[in-house]
Amino acid sequence: MQKTVIFFSMIIIFAVSTFAHIPTFLGPDDFVNGAYLVRDIDLSQIFYYILSEGERIVITFEGSIGMQFHMLFGVPKENEGMESTKDFRPELTVYDPDRNAYESFVLESIEPEIMYEFFGDTHSYLYVRHDSTLTKDGLYSIEIEATDPGRVWITFGLKEKFTASQIASIPKWIREIREFHYLTGLAKWEMYGLGIAGILSAASILLIFL
User: What CATH number did the domain enclosing 114 receive?
Assistant: First the structure.
């Protein structure tokens, strides 16, 4: 039994180190007062949101001269039997503190990369992989606008930092991430982990009675 607990602990630690993004599921209430503020743009984190038809959301963060800005932007890939989500391409623009367009991404002209994410065992269309050095101090804003309804995610930062309570939330996160990507059930690594844990438990019982 102790070996099984240790094994599952190792699986959890491996999953955290592999995924390394703290997930946040945003909703309309998070934008009631306007923009949603990301408090630590250096921290490795991912935000999920379901856009309504014609909706525009604004995400802001405090930046400073010389700060590294890392951002990925994607759309969950359709599941088997679904209509393709590849044509869902919202507008994405980053503005500097003076409201000048720091970076504008024309997704219509981008051929997306199909990205696999181990933690949730999901696939996405990755449209933006951006790294730059900020040139101004102040509040930056990211505007995402869609003509049609659809699901998007955006990630920031490379600094990995998880608390004990966040690690304990991993099973819940996996369910939510998979649901966001039109999936149900366990991720592959969870199924393999349960299978191996079952073998270890059976072996331990046999050793007791042999």
Answer: 2.60.120.380
